[in-house]
Amino acid sequence: MIVAIGGIDGYIGWALALHLAVRGHKVVGIDNFITRKRVEEVGSWSATPILTMQERIKAAKEVLGVDIQFVEGDLVNYSVVRSFFEKYKPDAFVHLAEQRSAPYSMIDVYHAVETQTQNIASSLNIVYAMKEVSPHTHLVKMGTMGEYGTPNIDIPEGFFEVEYHGRKDYLPFPRMASSWYHWSKVHDSGNMMFANKIWGLKISDVMQGVVYGTRTNEIVDERLHTRFDFDEVWGTALNRFCVQTVLGLPMTVYGKGGQTRGFISLTDSVQCLRLIIENPPDKGEYRVFNQFDEPYSVLELAQKVYKVGKEMGFEPAIAHVPNPRVEAESHYYNPEHEKLKALGFKRTRELEEELRNMLRDLSRYKNRLEAKKDVIFPRTDWRRARNPVR
Amino acid sequence: MIVAIGGIDGYIGWALALHLAVRGHKVVGIDNFITRKRVEEVGSWSATPILTMQERIKAAKEVLGVDIQFVEGDLVNYSVVRSFFEKYKPDAFVHLAEQRSAPYSMIDVYHAVETQTQNIASSLNIVYAMKEVSPHTHLVKMGTMGEYGTPNIDIPEGFFEVEYHGRKDYLPFPRMASSWYHWSKVHDSGNMMFANKIWGLKISDVMQGVVYGTRTNEIVDERLHTRFDFDEVWGTALNRFCVQTVLGLPMTVYGKGGQTRGFISLTDSVQCLRLIIENPPDKGEYRVFNQFDEPYSVLELAQKVYKVGKEMGFEPAIAHVPNPRVEAESHYYNPEHEKLKALGFKRTRELEEELRNMLRDLSRYKNRLEAKKDVIFPRTDWRRARNPVR
């Protein structure tokens, strides 16, 4: 298949490109390198050193023997998107090119508006381009489990049967996101559902859990590393805990740490995406996947890192810091996630084994972590946005 | 009270300004006159001749003895919004300043992106400005009944109790909108709910039905007319039917005409908004109103116009034209609308009486309607967006 990856330079994008290319798919990526710039903006960098795209593609060829094509471009520009679809007419387009940080979206009004308007514009551009020049393309749009929030009932995969006042309907599950970023994904989901309804486009909407890990089966050489963020804006909880442990810093658990989320390793995330791509929806179908492996509370994760870290000779510690976010710190959480299993998904990475790999990889780049020690602690507060400076 | 009106130059905005000013409120409006420009863009104009804002304010003073203040500005620009709130610190801000046409949003990708990004940006700017410089302000945000779509179950006012797999929660009702414009309102609603959650802002979210009519109790002089659109992009079904009847054209019912929506007269719309403003939410409260009077199917409305038109000596006719929209043409529709009644809302206009007024008013401007005859028939098709020209 011809698979296009929007955001191929990113954490999941690059790992997915390697995975699909090795599986024999023809991969073409597009990126505007904005995440590199935005991470620099907050004074941070990737824990793993990453090559330029040119060098990455060369390394993929030399190490794995695969050819990856690349176009530099911004999906917020419709003519770029349309030309891209016109030229490649991909069988699948995986949209990983959105601003993906909740704290970034909460910095101030400008970051809130930028996140929502750019994320929405890119998805609208993609569905319009598909409709106009490539209606056979299967769009794999990345959403997040965070769209659902933490309701006090089970979370279905996108839709559920509702009974109200004695009548029934099958409707989208209510969304209750918890940052402007997460809301941008909710907005996207609504838009994608509508694009499917009016034009019959094939769309898979992926509600992904938190992804962790430094490796996949294809990242077998330092030159093939994908980025790995650990600062308070761009890093996720588990990645940050590993970095803190390597640095001998206490893991910063926000509040009580009872916040429970679905997690999945990077290896299994790209496995799931491949399964979705290789098993496209029927013509005219819009389907939603809850893509995560196991739910854990933040505190449980810290305890796992503690255990593995201790075994490896680190001196881990857990600290509870004031929660900068607005979220329930203890709640019911039971999202369904059967559809990917039905496509053949099987967990290939155990959490503790993956934590061991991460701690080992990160130790190798301890100097890079040391250099950016001061950007790990939370500064972006959900309640008090910084004064806008623009 | 000090009441600010975003979009004061618009159909509801101007009518509301007059109504509130006569009730003794201090009214300050903001507008960038974009609707005037956008209506010109499609080759149309208001059926009722409308004055410039300066002349309008002068006429309001002379005819009604009220003072209305005005600022020209664009709510998409954060510094404009912040300065406005800093200067006026209104008790209520009514946000009527969004792009409000479904067909406009469906023209092509540029109109889709423009509608969604600008509507979202203006609302985000407003809640950020409130949080930063005017947290006591009560935001009255205009949504639309169209956010809910036409589910096969009753529609509550915003939230409902859900039971799923034996557990219960009180959640936002699922939204299923039917144009990029309607989806922009859904996105706004999510954002407003979240702004309330993180900052405790007082917000009333108004799911308004389709508004019709040329008059309110305050529009007693030709100089005080509010705008009245009738073209395929900016006019609504009922307004258009009246114009078609005055012109001796058949009323264009889209498809079978079984599409049922909630309707409310302009007079009663501004009555409802006043009740919402004069009865603000509690501190930290987010509340949703379904603001309409009665549901009618499009065909029923055409039949009403037929009856009244006949009585008045017109020669009305009903034509079924292919439906350019993607919507169910016969469906269950039972939205709840009790909360405004609890605040004291009473219907003051009967539909047939209001239709008589409209047909009389429009007859007076028949020349203006004749001149724009060719922009009434639908050209914007939900399934086939025009080729983008930008």
From TrEMBL, chains A, B:
Lineage summary: Archaea, Candidatus Marsarchaeota, Candidatus Marsarchaeota group 1
Residues in NAD-dependent epimerase/dehydratase domain copies: 5-290
Record family assignment: Belongs to the NAD(P)-dependent epimerase/dehydratase family.
Protein name as annotated: NAD-dependent dehydratase
Coiled-coil ranges from the UniProt annotation: 348-375
The entry's keywords: Coiled coil
Organism: Candidatus Marsarchaeota G1 archaeon BE_D
Pfam family, one: Epimerase
